[in-house]
Amino acid sequence: MKLKVTFFVVLIAVITIGLSSAYVIDETEQVVITQFGKYIGKPKTEPGLHFKWPLVWEANFFPKNLLYWDGDPGQIPTKEKTYIWVNSFARWKIVDAIKFFQTINNVNSALGRLDDIIDPAVRNFITSYRLIETVRTSNREMDITEIGIDESDRKQTSTYAITTGRDKIIQGILEQAQPKLQRFGIALVDVQIKRINYVEEVRKSVYGRMIAERKQIAEKYRSEGQGEARKILGDKERDLKQITSMAYRTAQELKGEADAEATRLYAEAYSRDPEFYSFIKTLDTYQTALDEKSSLIMSTNSEFLKYLKGYKHKE
User: Fold this and answer.
1) Dihedral-angle region of residue 310 (phi above 0 means left; psi in -120 to 50 means alpha; beta otherwise)
2) Torsion region of 82: left, alpha or beta (phi above 0 gives left; psi -120 to 50 gives alpha)
C-alpha cells in the first residue's frame, strides 16, 4: 500500500515538474527566460513547444506583433494661435524584449511611456507650423474654395501655400519620438494624425466665414448668369429683328415684282383691245358696286352707265 502511494506521489510530482518545464510560444509572442528576476540567454522568438528548468526558470511572455497606441485628443494651438483638437495614433512593436523587460516589463506601462513621448512630439510640431501645413500635403492646382473667386481674391489664396506639408510633419514627429523609445526596446513603426478639428469657439466663426464665402461665390455666379441671360436675350431680339426685316424686304421685293408683272399684263391686254378691257372692268365695277339692295340716282349722261344705254331685252 505504501508503495502504491509513493508511486502516485512520484508520478504526480513528475507530471507537475514536466508541465512546469514546458511552455508554448505562438506566432505573435516572444519569451524572456528569467532566474530569480534576472534574464538568462536570448529571447525565444520561434513559435512552438519549448522547455525550461522547472521552478527555477520563469517564462515572461511579450507580444511580437504590431501594437496599437491611441492618443487622447486635446487642444493644441497652431503657429497662428488657432486652437484645434488633434487626435493621433501610432503603431509600435517590441524589438528588444530584454530591454523591454528590464525597463517597462508590461504593455500597459509601455502605453504610458508612449503617451509621455508621442503626445509632446505631436504638440511641438503642431505649434511650430500653420494649420494649413498640418491639413494639406501638397499645393494643389485647384481647390474647391478657390472656384469662382476673382483674380484679385485669388491672389490672397497664396497664403494657403504650404512649404512643409502634413507628411513631413508626421515624419518629423516619428523621428523625434523614435530615439526616446529605443532604450525601452520599442520601435515606433508609424505615427498618424487621426483627426483635426476646430475647437467649438473657433468652429462657429469658421463656419460663418465659409458660409459667407459660399454666398459670395454663389452671388457672383448668379450675377454672371443674369448677365449672360440678358446677353442671350439681346442677341435673340437682334436676330429676330434682323430675320423679320430681311423677310419683310424679301416680301416687298416679291410683291413689287408681282405688281410690276400684273401691271405689265394689264397694259399689254389694254393695248390689244382697249374697248373690251374697258367693258370688262366696267362690268366688274357693276358687280361690286351694285346689288339688289343698292339704290343709285344718276344722270343719263353719266359715263358710268354708258354700257346700259340702249340695252333692250329680247323676248
Assistant:
1) left
2) beta
Confidence of residue 115 (pLDDT cuts 50, 70, 90): very high
- The answer to whether 161 touches 139, Cβ cutoff 8 Å, is yes
| pLDDT over threshold 70, residue 132 | yes
Cα 204 from Cα 209, distance rounded (Å): 9
Determine the average pLDDT of the residues in 24-53.
80
Q: What does the pLDDT look like over 243-261, one tens digit per residue? A: 999 999 999 989 998 988 8
Q: What is the mean pLDDT of the chain?
A: 79
The domain defined by 67-198 folds into Tetrahydropterin Synthase; Chain A (3.30.479)
CB atoms within 10 A of CB 177: 21
pTM over 0.85: no
Where are the chain's structural domains? 2-62, 67-198
- Mean of the pLDDT values across residues 75-87? 87
Q: Do the Cβ atoms of 176 and 122 come closer than 8 Å?
A: no
Rounded-to-integer distance, Cα 181 and Cα 174, Å:
11
The contacts of residue 172 (CB under 8 Å, 6+ apart) are 125
